[in-house]
Write a structure and sequence with these properties.
This is C-terminal of Roc (COR) domain-containing protein. Pfam families: LRR_6. InterPro entries: Leu-rich_rpt, LRR_dom_sf, P-loop_NTPase. It comes from Physcomitrium patens. Helix content is 39%, strand content 17%. The chain is α/β, with parallel strands linked by helices and 1391 residues long. The chain has a 15-stranded mixed beta sheet with strand order 1-4-3-2-5-6-7-8-9-10-11-12-13-14-15. The longest helix has 29 residues. The two termini are 61 Å apart. The chain binds guanosine-5'-triphosphate (GTP) and magnesium ion (MG).
Length: 1391
């Protein structure tokens, strides 16, 4: 035992070692870590952690024969990751009993070679022989460093003995894992552990040992202890085991004594109960104390994981005490233990700065992992307080431990992270408080100001269920890209450059406004800066030289970019073409405002006039038209902007052509309209002001300009600072541009060269080249945000002349009008196809139009068509006909010609690409999805989105043979992995992406393939910063299978033919039954018949598993509430620190959790078996809970004393009354008034409480006093009803018919609560009333029942239960039916 005094003496760290941790500087002006944290973090390398958590690489797998496998073992084509031997001949499934697989990996792929034991003359003997051959091969192969053996516990010892003998001399194997196949739930044969332990007496190579399902008896512990004492090479030991405190004491003996083990770095114990073993297999608090004791002495252990060990506050306290002095431990994992707030407090104390001494007791501890425990809301301030000052903790993992936290708690935690610079991983999976727009916006803002946070687990939270996780992930990815090294020591300054985006429909006056602005700028500055000649001046204001033929007026093509400097602020004006054909490109240059907090503002212009008749007279534009115009662009801006609290995009509205209405008060006219929009869009856009002006007049736009100027200055002050180095580099870049007026692109190598001339960007001697490159990239990104250049990561060049690219190049390419002056031939055909030669012509044409004054007709150099293609491929603007072939043509989906007439009407004929001739249609699976914009009022998938998605998906499937990827306007069709896809887009008003799939694969595989390859990528693509629409949340809906089977045209697939995934899940849970059928509304063409599909089929396996888990969660919650015993003295003592609502943490660890990360081809089986397991569990719980609730009502509600005694019946509910039973509604809210309600009572029978049908009931007047007195009864009743509903449909009896679906969901507490202002009381939590309220309620009921004929009015009879034929104290009021039954069986006496 660790004696507290021993720990106590070493607890007070000497000041020299504690390093005097100080607060990080209040507002970091440079993005560097405080020096102390830097040195501390430098010692700790989080990289492996990133790998641990990063998603799996794409897998490929192939089956091979045994000789092929052995050859591969000898000469592995790639690095061997693991050799996996699965040997379980007793299992009777052919596909899954014996196999050997070799996992290989290079940078890109994980590849698996699989050999299955098969063949006609297979026998135990040959199986064994093959195993022996593999063992021989692996031992002689120097490439195998990791082996996993999964075996049947019966045969285990023979194979293991063989392996161990072979390994005695081996030095190359580093990781050995031996598991018993956990489908048997049996521990490994103890002989087998003995062999392994003995092998460790001589083996010197193995660093890591994992044993799965071991029954650690004292004898086994002794064997392992001997190995630990002798072996000095083992670094990590993982035991999934039944082990108790005594066995642990034996096992940890080698860590004390004269020559203690000081080499083991990681010890993981996961408690498991195995069949046949005695006891629960948990080390408990005693074991934790033992480990704490080890930690006091040991100096090698860095990671301790004690999962499912039944450790509570007491054990945690001992561990925390040890941590006060220990200086080596980095990771403490206490998942699946009943650790509560008190325990958390203890651990947190070790790394919280003492406000008095400003010191942190422990500075080496890095990770806290507490999954699947119960940490109440009180944990939030404790953690927030710690995170605000701590600068050592790297990971905080609270998966499924903080489910009960509310929005407020999460916000507190997030706020505390604003200044924290050490935390990289925060996991709040399953937390109910991660919900609502405020939390989302706060997270997104935080990720901008805190670039250190790399991972944030939000799965299983309301936010992620709503699909918001994609945009969080996109930002996290950006954060993770950055090295913290990169920014060390780089100074930052307030930026001095901003961008202004001019938008509005064609002829709104954008270009006119821009020119007037530029002109007045030149006028103002030219007197001082004498450089500008009048010729240059003219040049500047007539920037555009591309006109559309056949038009009188000039129309902007693409985007024109011009730069002015006002009061030392450089403003680049981006004049976006109003014409729709160019919109596809716009959102690639519009910043996702909050993503980097770049300085920019939007000006939205609108021509206020419409010609009236032919006489050249004008009238004011109709309000509706104005609204429509403005709304389009506001939605465009909002869709490109992530949610944010502090960094909403600013929009200034200008109504032009004011000169046409000299006598009208225009401001007053437009004010209400702008105000209305301002309010509507206030969550996503900040409409700052509006003006009326004559865009042609300098004088008229002067106030606008002034206001804009002011706005820009204030924005520049607010946005994150930029690197000092940017402005220096800018000077260098300008010099370069002057020297190379003919080069619109700069090679990355040249850019690097320029960077090396700037001290802060120079690569220092000995510095990692990657760091230098990352810095240069960061600066390039910042300059991109300032509008100086266009930088896209992954290209070896940048565009230094944005106007050239946006206007000259993209403007021409996207111009559908083939009569462009510069080209005689149509550039792009109706399939969106063009040849590379054509692009070359575009490039050439752009050269001669270059308007650089210094550029006098020379040929522009440095751009080859290939660069252009690369750039466009990168931006998802085009894809190559034959990827990699530099001569093939390219497709530019954005310039696909308009859809056919039928398609435009929504009647595009659909047909499958493949055609399974041999297979009948019935054997194929037909599934459909719809991704749609959550809030089409404020956001939309912009015009460029679907064309880019067409490119994005093409790239994804371009390597796939026979993918037959074809596109049309708003349409994609392709084949992948046995699935045929039809994707049709319906936008921009509806913003729906319909995905129709026909599959020859089974359900699990079909769903997984679609999710992995289309749904998830599409959502992620939408959430990605540049190419996507970050403001849009895509909701996933399920399409009625019939639509897919019969290939209904788009028009027929109305919104009634789809149902939201989350909506359907809620419906299932609200229904309380697993065989819930969803009934489709009839489509236009259908005449008769109800069409329903089972929810399980519609949702697909993965979603169904989620439904079951959530269902199970609810039931478990009820279970723990019901089985809680009320005893007044059990509160507040440490002997039972478990909160009464703590769910048993161990229940999910058992069978449903796989010990091993199974190979992917087994994933479907696992999913299916989990689903089966859960359904069984749910059924069992439902059956148990109904009677157990009925028997334990007093543990759920605190009834007044007299009522407990059964003086009067007391299970009250109120109804509205009504002519027929069907019109009767349950009352869930009661306000005083001059009306009455019907008063009902439930049958109290202990086998199942229920409502009594056709009960006459009483009348209750709703005067003030009665309402007040009856309120507790009503709420108690509602609480019981809520629980009955949550248990099952059966338990709920007749109540569902008295409730609408919405009321029912609210009562059950299963609607996602975004707003807290629901005045209805929440009956799912604990109800509490004051003693006065209780008394009043009790009096009222007794008084009310007085003199009433209870049997006649309520159909209830007072009975006394019999115990073995003798009357007991238990009295109840039960219904006729129950009474007769009970009397017949001699169970009750009537009183
Ligand atoms: N009388 C009057 N005419 C204006 C005003 N603003 C613009 N115009 C005229 O409207 C026409 C179109 O203006 P532009 O500035 O080219 O329109 P735009 O918004 O750039 O249009 P696109 O580039 O096609 O999107 C031009 O002939 C302008 O002279 C204004 O305030 N008053
Ligand atoms: Mg224009």
């Amino acid at each position: 035992m660790c004696t507290p005094p021993a720990c106590g003496t070493s607890m007070g760290l000497s000041p020299t070692t504690s390093d005097g941790y100080v607060l990080p500087p209040p507002a970091p002006t440079t993005l560097s870590l405080p020096p102390k944290a830097q040195s501390a973090l430098a010692m700790y390398n989080p990289m492996p952690l990133i790998e641990k958590e990063s998603g799996p690489k794409p897998q490929k797998y192939s089956e091979v024969d045994i000789d092929g496998l052995l050859r591969a073992l000898k000469n592995p084509p790639e690095k061997i990751v693991d050799l996996y031997i699965h040997y379980c001949p007793r299992i009777k499934s052919d596909s899954d009993n014996c196999s050997v697989s070799l996992t290989l990996a290079d940078d890109k792929f994980v590849r698996r070679l699989l050999y299955r034991f098969a063949g006609p003359d297979r026998s135990e003997y040959t199986d064994h022989q093959i195993c022996s051959r593999v063992i021989t091969a692996l031992v002689s192969s120097p490439a195998v460093s990791s082996v996993t053996l999964e075996i049947d516990y019966v045969q285990s010892d023979v194979i293991v003995a063989e392996l161990c003998t072979a390994l005695q001399k081996n030095r190359t194997l580093q990781r050995l894992s031996v598991y018993s196949d956990n489908r048997f739930q049996q521990p490994l044969n103890s002989e087998c552990v003995k062999h392994i332990a003995e092998m460790f007496l001589v083996n010197t190579g193995i660093r890591e040992l994992q044993l799965g399902l071991v029954d650690i008896t004292l004898q086994v512990a002794d064997n392992l202890a001997l190995a630990l004492r002798r072996n000095r090479f083992l670094r990590g030991l993982t035991l999934y085991a039944r082990i108790d405190a005594d066995a642990l004491a034996v096992l940890t003996k080698p860590f004390s004594g004269s020559e203690p083990n000081q080499t083991l770095q990681k010890l993981e114990i996961k408690g498991f109960k195995c069949l046949g073993a005695r006891g629960d297999g948990q080390i408990g608090n005693k074991g934790a104390e033992n480990i704490a004791n080890v930690l006091c002495r040991n100096s090698s252990l860095e990671e301790i994981a004690l999962k499912n060990c039944e450790i509570d506050y007491v054990g945690v306290q001992a561990l925390a005490l040890a941590l006060m002095s220990n200086k080596n431990l980095k990771v403490l994992d206490l998942s699946y233990n009943p650790v509560d707030v008190e325990g958390l407090k203890e651990i947190v104390k070790t790394i919280t700065m003492d406000p008095a001494t400003k010191e942190q007791p422990n500075t080496t501890f890095r990770e806290i992992i507490i999954r699947h425990s119960f940490i109440s809301r009180a944990g939030a301030p404790i953690l927030a307080n710690m995170l605000a000052t701590n600068n050592t903790l790297v990971r905080l993992d609270l998966q499924f431990s903080v489910r009960s936290w509310q929005i407020k708690d999460v916000l507190a935690l997030l706020h505390s992270l604003k200044r924290n610079q050490s935390l990289r991983f925060l996991d709040l999976r399953g937390c109910d408080g991660v919900a609502g727009e405020k939390v989302l916006a706060t997270i997104l803002d935080l990720l901008v100001t805190n670039p250190w946070l790399e991972q944030l687990g939000v799965e299983g939270t309301p936010l992620s269920r709503k699909g918001h996780d994609a945009v969080i992930k996109a930002q996290l990815r950006r954060n993770a890209e950055k090295f913290m090294e990169v920014f060390k020591g780089m100074g930052t300054v307030t930026p001095t450059a901003a961008r202004v985006f001019l938008c509005g429909i064609p002829f709104a006056g954008k270009t006119t406004f821009r020119k007037t602005m530029v002109y007045s700028n030149i006028k103002r500055t030219s007197s001082s800066v004498r450089l500008k000649t009048s010729a240059a001046c003219k040049e500047a204001i007539s920037n555009s030289k591309i006109f559309k033929a056949g038009r009188k007026e000039s129309q902007t093509v693409g985007i024109e970019v011009q730069v002015i400097v006002e009061d030392n602020v450089q403003i680049s004006i981006w004049d976006l073409a109003g014409h729709e054909e160019f919109h596809a490109f716009h959102d690639l240059v519009v910043p996702n405002l909050s993503s980097q907090g770049s300085a920019c503002t939007f000006v939205l212009l609108c021509d206020m006039s419409v010609p009236q008749g032919k006489g050249g007279k004008y009238e004011l534009k109709d309000e509706k038209v104005v609204d429509h115009e403005l709304r389009y662009w506001l939605r465009f801006i909002a869709s490109n902007t992530r949610q944010s609290v502090h960094m909403l995009p600013n929009v200034t509205v200008i109504f032009t052509h004011s000169d046409k209405f000299p006598k009208t008060d225009l401001i007053a006219h437009f004010k209400p309209q702008v105000e209305k929009l301002r309010v509507q869009f206030s969550k996503v856009i900040n409409i700052t002001e509006f003006h009326v002006a004559d865009a042609r007049s300098r004088k008229s736009i002067e106030p606008v300009q002034k206001a804009m100027q002011k706005r820009i200055v204030s924005i520049l002050d607010r946005v994150p600072k930029v690197f000092d180095a940017c402005s220096q580099l800018q000077t260098k870049l300008n010099e370069w541009k002057n020297q190379h007026p003919d080069k619109p692109l700069i090679k990355w190598s040249d850019f690097s060269l320029l960077c090396s001339k700037v001290p802060a960007l120079k690569r220092l001697q000995g510095q990692d080249s990657k760091v230098a490159e990352e810095r240069q990239k960061a600066v390039a990104r910042a300059m991109h945000d300032a509008g100086e250049l266009l930088f896209f990561d992954g290209l070896d060049f940048m565009v230094v002349d944005p106007n050239w690219f946006c206007h000259e190049i993209m403007g021409r390419i996207l111009s559908l009008d083939s009569t462009l002056l510069v080209l005689k031939h149509p550039l792009i055909d109706e399939h969106g196809f063009t040849k590379r030669e054509h692009l070359k012509k575009v490039l050439e044409a752009s050269f001669c139009k270059n308007k650089n004054p210094l550029f006098k007709g020379r040929k522009v150099r440095g751009v080859i068509p290939e660069d252009l293609v690369q750039l466009m491929v990168k931006l998802n603007l085009c894809f190559e006909q034959n990827p990699g072939d530099k001569t093939s043509g390219i497709y530019i989906p954005a310039s696909l010609s308009n859809p056919s007439e039928a398609a435009a009407r929504g009647e595009r004929p659909l047909s499958w690409a493949n055609g399974y001739d041999q297979v009948s249609d019935d054997e194929l699976l037909h599934v459909g999805w719809r991704l749609k914009c959550e809030n089409p009022e404020l956001t939309t998938l912009t015009l460029g989105f679907f064309p880019r998605l067409q490119v994005f998906l093409q790239k994804k499937f371009s390597g796939v043979q026979d993918a037959r990827y074809t596109i049309e306007k708003n349409f994609i069709s392709f084949v992948f992995s046995g699935l045929e896809f039809l994707i049709e887009y319906n936008g921009p008003e509806e913003c729906q992406v319909d995905i129709l799939v026909r599959s020859s694969k089974d359900t699990v595989e079909t769903w997984a393939t679609v999710e992995e390859n289309v749904l998830k990528p599409t959502r992620e693509f939408c959430a990605s910063p540049t190419e996507g629409c970050q403001g849009v949340v895509l909701i996933e809906e399920i399409m009625r299978p019939q639509c897919v089977r019969e290939l209904w045209v788009r028009k027929k697939r109305t919104k009634d033919q789809c149902i939201g995934v989350e909506d359907l899940k809620l419906k299932v849970m609200a229904s309380g039954k697993l065989d819930y059928e969803y009934i489709w509304k009839k489509s236009m063409a259908e005449s008769h018949g109800l069409k329903a599909n089972s929810a399980e089929v519609l949702l697909g396996p993965a979603h169904w598993e989620d439904v079951l888990s959530r269902f199970l969660d609810t039931l478990e919650k009820i279970d723990s509430e019901v089985s809680r015993r009320r005893s007044p003295d059990s509160t507040g003592t440490h002997s039972s620190p478990l909160s009464p609502l703590t769910p048993p943490p161990s229940r999910r660890v058992g069978r449903t959790v796989s010990l091993l990360p199974r190979p992917s081809e087994m994933a479907s089986q696992l999913l299916e078996s989990r689903i089966a397991d859960r359904s069984v569990e749910i059924n069992a719980l439902q059956k148990k809970l109904f009677p157990s609730l009925s028997r334990n009502i007093d543990s759920v509600i605190d009834l007044p004393f007299l009522l407990q005694d059964g003086k009067v019946p007391h299970l009250v509910y109120l109804s509205t009354g009504g002519d027929s039973v069907n019109s009767e509604r349950l009352v869930t809210k009661l306000t005083p008034g001059s009306y009455s309600r019907k008063f009902h009572l439930m049958c109290e029978h202990r086998d199942g409480i229920h409502m009594i049908e056709h009960q006459v009931g009483g009348i209750m007047r709703c005067d003030e006093k009665s309402v007040r007195s009856v309120r507790p009864h009503m709420l108690w009743g509602l609480k019981l009803i809520s629980m009955l509903l949550r248990i099952s449909e059966l338990a709920a009896g007749g109540f569902p018919t008295m409730l609408t679906e919405a009321e029912r969901m609210r009562l059950m507490g299963i609607v996602a609560d975004d707003d807290d202002n629901d005045e209805r009381p929440d009956v799912t939590g604990r109800l509490s009333f004051t003693p006065e309220e209780m008394m009043a309620a009790e009096d009222w009921l007794i008084h009310y029942m007085k003199g009433k004929n209870i049997p006649a009015l309520f159909g209830l009879h007072k009975v006394c239960y019999l115990d073995n034929g003798l009357p007991s104290k238990h009295v109840a009021w039960i219904c006729d039916k129950h009474m007769h039954f009970c009397l017949n069986h001699g169970l009750v006496d009537v009183l």
